[in-house]
């Protein structure tokens, strides 16, 4: 088991994520009225249909495309020297500092504490029928896993194949994939907790819930 105290102290020392907002395509940049220290909001709504704070617009072939903040936080840097210039796709425009929430901190810690079973290739993943029934009836944590167990159906280009679990025995503690969405190769599908570490993981969760201070 990793050192939870050390990891939590490291996150507390830098309790944020740096986000670079880049030009989505070529065009001429015009920045919105944002500057260093400006507080911004990210997308909101059930389907993230409400856009975040406007950061800039980029004009291409007389069409202007707005560029919005992707997370809440504050502006760290606006690359003002690019104002009115033609930029290439991928050119950094604004740097944001997003302060981590309890859920995000917990996700970081759990991804280090749990055994991550990852997608072997880009595809859509579904629990195998027997596993799916159990998940829907009693939740993912009710599923006990062992080496070689049929766990997923992998769907790619209208072809389906079974995917067996490989890793330590345990229960599903976290699910990282969404129904009917593609998962890139190497991305985690589930996080598995061995039975002898379950109480330690629960202690980690409780500690983060009580110790982490949210920042607006």
Sum this structure up briefly.
21% of the residues lie in helices and 38% in strands. The protein has 216 residues and is α+β, with helices and mostly antiparallel strands.
- Rg (C-alpha, Å): 21 Å
Biggest sheet features: 4 strands, antiparallel
Strand order of the largest sheet: 1-8-6-3
Low-confidence stretches: none
CATH class of the largest domain: Mainly Beta
| Tally of distinct domains | 2
Distance between the termini: 32 Å
What name goes with the CATH superfamily of the largest domain? RNA polymerase II/Efflux pump adaptor protein, barrel-sandwich hybrid domain
Class derived from helix and strand content? alpha+beta
How confident overall, as mean pLDDT? 92
Beta-strand proportion? 35-45%
Organism: Nitratidesulfovibrio liaohensis
Protein name: Biotin attachment protein
Question: Can you put this structure into words, describing what you see?
Answer:
This protein is of the alpha+beta class. It folds into 2 domains: 14-99, RNA polymerase II/Efflux pump adaptor protein, barrel-sandwich hybrid domain (OB fold (Dihydrolipoamide Acetyltransferase, E2P)), CATH 2.40.50; 103-211, RNA polymerase II/Efflux pump adaptor protein, barrel-sandwich hybrid domain (OB fold (Dihydrolipoamide Acetyltransferase, E2P), Beta Barrel). It is built from 4 helices and 16 strands. The chain has helices spanning 4-13, 102-113, 129-138, 198-211, and strands at residues 16-22, 27-31, 39-40, 54-60, 63-68, 73-78, 86-87, 92-99, 115-118, 123-127, 144-145, 150-156, 159-164, 170-175, 182-183, 188-193. A 4-stranded antiparallel beta sheet has the order 1-8-6-3, with no helix packed on it. The protein has a 4-stranded antiparallel beta sheet with strand order 5-4-2-7, with no helix packed on it. Strand 4 and strand 5 (63-68) form a beta hairpin. The protein starts with a helix and ends in a 5-residue tail after the last helix. The model has no long low-confidence stretch (mean pLDDT 92).
